[in-house]
Amino acid sequence: MDIHLTKDMPQVECLNNNYKIIDGHFILDCHKECIDCNLAKDDTSCFQCRNVRVELWNSIGGRRVRTVQFLTECPVGYQLSDSKENLCVPCQSDTFKNTTGNHNCLPCAPGSFSASNTTVNCMLCSPGNFASKPGSVQCQQCHVGTASRFNGSASCAACSAGLFAAQRGQTECTPCPAGQFNKAERQTQCQLCSAGFFADKPGQKSCTACPAGTSSAEGSVSCANNCKRGEFSPVEGIPCAKCPAGSFTPSAGSINCTSCFEGSYSSRAGSASCTPCPAGSFADQMHSKKLQPVPCRKLE
Question: Coiled-coil ranges per the record (predicted)?
């Protein structure tokens, strides 16, 4: 829009600064990014842009209204379109752009993600999650047997021996409880200590053998159970066993059994003492080394 000045018209001053005089014409003073416009000094009222333009969508009265803004270069979160001239388009999800300019958006680095368009900075994966590749739209939960303690992890660490992770998305590996162990990495559960072994602290890679003369049940935290009378444990880690028939042990915590003495016998396993032979019979110790029963024999 312009107004042409003639000699017959009085010389007047423009009442506002929305116009400028060019060759005797009052012309709208367009925004510097406009080649022509319908509203002075407004970067959304250009008929033609000098550099680039951005299409913005706003909600007005429940309707989406498009506004075109004209700029020197693409703003943050936007890059030049590959198909439309001088049009800045939003960065796609999985990419970002945190500086102005007409260069392309960049993929999010491993350990970060972008789930929406026009992203200025990618979000870091939270603890218990990871993104192993560039350009992720979301992070994944750590797999079982692994964990991640920090923000921005590109991978989750395998649980060490003595630790486990039974669920996805764990931020810490869990120590094996006392009485349990595991000896390998990346485990989802721990194993109970075998009978005759124990683990008195959490996070054990192996169990300790019970001392000779003692024993333990499966999953024990100690070897407080001494072998009972009539039982024995010859070496570390061997559960208590009953003395064979023909032998005995009179005290708890024994590491071996004693053969019945001459003139006595034991017909059952697990004896704490031997029974004297009845009158008119006897028993010898010829089989005592093998701890076999020696029946009494009648005297001739």
Answer: none
- Whether this model's pTM surpasses 0.70: no
Residues ≥6 apart with Cβ < 8 Å to 44: 67, 68, 69, 70
With beta carbons less than 8 A apart as the criterion, state whether 108 and 132 touch: no
Give residue 11's pLDDT.
46
Q: Is the dihedral of CA 193, 195, 198, 202 positive or negative?
A: positive
State both tokens at 212. Answer: 């000779």
Intervals of the chain under pLDDT 50: 1-15, 287-292
Domain spanning 228-300: which CATH class is it, in words?
mainly beta
Distance from CA of residue 105 to its chain's centroid? 30
Maximal C-alpha separation, the chain = 166
Where do the domains of the chain lie? 1-72, 228-300
Instruction: Give the pLDDT confidence of 205-252 residue by residue, as tens digits.
Output: 999 998 888 888 899 999 876 788 898 888 877 888 899 988 999 988
Evaluated on CA atoms 40, 44, 48, 49, the torsion sign reads positive
